[in-house]
Amino acid sequence: TFAPFSWNRYTVRTMLSFSDDPYIFVEPKPCKPLIAAMRVVNQLISLPAAHHRITGVEVQHGDRATQAATDGKRLLFVPNHSTHSDVEIITDVYRKLSLDSQYMAAYEVFSRTKLRGWLMQRGGAFSVDREGSDKKSMKQAIKTLVEGKYGLTIFPEGNVHFTNERVTSFLEGAAFIALQAQRELADDAEVVIVPVAIKVTHVT
Predict the structure, then answer these.
(1) What is the DSSP letter of 83?
(2) What are the Cα distances from residue 63, in Å, to 66, 99, 149, 153?
(3) pLDDT digits (tens, 9 = 90+) for 28-72
(4) Which residue of 65, 136, 176, 204 is 20 to 30 Å from 55, comparing CA positions?
(5) pTM value?
């Protein structure tokens, strides 16, 4: 289950209130022990909390992604983005599959509080300026795939659209990043785009 739409409207308003902040690129500083701890907190506290109300996450066909990672392929995860719980949901998916991923996230989310920004950095997230050409963010995304220590998660719709049954048009960034990373890797490794279909259903 997910939170009532009235809460979602509130969340949209708070996101827009940060849209005038000057953009400064936020680089990822992943800390694996902290990531492990945050995944447990996410599973036990964040997902069931009143603002998400997620009672469980079921993963289908996850073995395909884990096998690709085992084979040394570079994974670019592209989930749909229909609720404000998607990050928490995909985080639990990675916990269940024992996969690591960095995230490309809107700068406005980092700027809400210093603690939130700090935790996001240590969780492997980095910022992107959705209003302009963000070369630093593109460079970081390509670097993540080329190095192969982490997968990369991008929500190609660019924003939350509340369309649980379908996806909206994809932005071009994810495809560009995958192609550029593959060019740099040449025959050393294969970049695989992993579509992730998140569908939230009511249990009552």
Answers:
(1) S
(2) 5, 11, 19, 17
(3) 999 999 999 999 999 999 999 999 999 999 999 999 999 999 999
(4) 65
(5) 0.86
Evaluate whether 157 touches 166 at the Cβ level (below 8 Å).
no
Phi, psi of 191 (to 5 degrees): -90, 125
Coil/strand/helix, residue 88: helix
Q: What is the CA radius of gyration of the chain?
A: 16
Phi, then psi, of 106 in degrees rounded to 5: -60, 140
What average pLDDT does range 103-118 have in this prediction? 91
pLDDT tens figures, 82-101: 999 999 999 999 999 999 99
**Sole residue written with tokens 């005038």:** 20
The pair of three-digit structure tokens given for residue 97, joined into one six-digit string: 């599959």
Element of type H or E holding 194: strand 191-196
Q: DSSP 3-state assignment of 155?
A: coil
Query: Which whole number is the average pLDDT over 4-27?
Result: 54
Q: Cα(53)–Cα(48) distance, rounded to whole angstroms?
A: 5
Q: From the CB of residue 64, how many other CB atoms can be counted at a distance below 10 Å?
A: 11
